[in-house]
Amino acid sequence: MKKVIFSLALLLFLVKTFGQTTDTTFSSEYYLQKSRDQKSGGALMLLAGTAMSSIALIMGLHQLSDAVFNTFSDTPPKKAGAATEVLFYTGIGLSLGSLPLFIASKRNSRVAATISLHNQKTLYPQQNSVALKNQPALTLRVPL
Fold first, then answer.
1. Would the pLDDT of 80 be above 70?
2. On the CB side of 22, how many CA atoms lie within 13 Å of its CA?
């Protein structure tokens, strides 16, 4: 029984080992794309949150003005809807939720702007033709 359990544990350990990737470094293009996606997502969340909060604020002011004008009349005032409050707080939450995306975008753009060493193909003139040769190059990428 001990041999069976040991064999199964060893088999599961080997399956897990072969399933892992060996490349743990990502390219700077990956981090730049990730930064762009996070920045656009953060901007979209900020825009949507601001719009939702503004609409809820306008709706609340409209309900407040109706309540003030209805105090002088005989009609009972309308109750402020819970939808306005939910819309306002959801907009505030979206606006605040965009901050982590902007922070992560900045961090990923800094990771992408690292110095890296590449082999760059360069044209070298030879007797009657031009040849491509690999030349080591030190590159610095700065996202704009």
1. no
2. 1
C-alpha distance from residue 7 to each of 18, 38, 142 (Å): 17, 45, 51
Q: Are 88 and 60 in contact (CB under 8 A)?
A: yes
Least confident of 5-9, 22-26, 108-112: 22-26
Give residue 20's pLDDT: 47
Per the structure block, which two tokens stand in for 93?
A: 């939450």
Residues 6+ apart with CB under 8 A from 29: 112
CA dihedral of 117, 118, 119, 123, whole degrees rounded to 10: -100
Out of 29-38, 92-101, 124-133, pick the least confident.
124-133
